[in-house]
Amino acid sequence: MKIEVLGSGCAKCNKVKEIVEKVVNEAGIDAEIVKVEDIDKILDYGVMVTPGLVIDGDVKIAGKIPSEDKVKEWLTQ
Amino acid sequence: MADEIKCACDSTNVALFSCSGASNVGQLSNQLAIELTEKGVGKMMCAVGIGGQVPGLLRSAEGCDRVIAIDGCPLNCTKKTLELAGIGIDRHILITDLGIKKNKDLRVKGSETSDLLEKVSDILAN
């Protein structure tokens, strides 16, 4: 599984990465977590507002910090 | 322009969608969305991407605090497109309600845009 956190490094983007890492560690999920800071790559996903979260190429959220429960649901479904 | 963007988290979380249709008022609505973006009122987003169900664009619209839809004429294509996608609209601007008659001229006149921008800025401020 590939998880991409979209955003160039502000507090909100870092928070999303923190949540994702926590959920991945706690649930023992085998995943590669990548921080995407290149605005061109972010726009390639059609994401206009960050932070964003992409799981295996699927944009799950943009412009908001997801809850841990929501991230867990996305990663385990 | 993209190189100047450091982080999209800090930008105003207001989405601007325009109809961009094949008429004077369609093109005026598009130009208006550009001008409002440049004024920092919100961020112009792709209405056609919402109709096309492009996931990143849908999620971006859902992630905005407010959504402003700008339609050229009473066909209300932008409003309907957003509603069909389940995206709530906070403000709806209709160009033909602002004293401009629809025609097939696709070239936007600068004076029309500036007059319209003034009217719409007043509307959005209230």
Topology:
The complex is a heterodimer of chains A (77) and B (126).
Chain A (H helix, E strand, L loop, with lengths): L1 E5 L4 H17 L4 E5 L2 H6 L7 E4 L2 E5 L5 H9 L1
Parallel strand pairs in A: 1-2
Antiparallel strand pairs in A: 1-3, 3-4
Helix pairs in contact in A: 1-3
Chain B lengths: L13 E5 L5 H15 L4 E3 L1 H5 L3 H8 L3 E6 L5 H8 L6 E4 L15 H16 L1
Helix pairs in contact in B: 1-5
InterPro entries (chain B): DGC
Protein name (chain B): Zinc-binding protein
InterPro entries (chain A): Thioredoxin-like_fold, Thioredoxin-like_sf, THIRX-like_proc
Question: Tell me, what is the CATH class of chain A?
Answer: Alpha Beta
Q: Major β-sheet of chain B, in short?
A: 4 strands, parallel
The ordered string of helix (H) and strand (E) elements of chain A is EHEHEEH
CATH H level, superfamily name of chain A? Glutaredoxin
Q: Name the helix and strand elements of chain B from N-terminus to C-terminus, one letter apiece.
A: EHEHHEHEH
Unreliably modeled segments of chain B: 1-6
Number of strands of chain A: 4
CATH topology of chain A: Glutaredoxin
Cα distance spanning the termini of chain B: 31 Å
Q: Main sheet of chain A, how many strands, which sense, barrel?
A: 4 strands, mixed
Q: Gap between N and C termini of chain A, in Å? A: 12 Å
Shape of chain A: globular
- Please tally the helical runs of chain A, counting DSSP H or I stretches of 4 or more residues: 3
Count every helix of chain B, treating DSSP H or I runs of 4 or more residues as helices: 5
**Structural class, from helix and strand content of chain A?**
alpha+beta
Low-confidence stretches of chain A: none
Structural class of chain B: alpha/beta
Mean of the pLDDT scores of chain B? 91
Protein name (chain B): Zinc-binding protein
Organism (chain B): Methanococcoides methylutens MM1
Pfam family, one (chain B): DGC
Active site (chain A): 10, 13
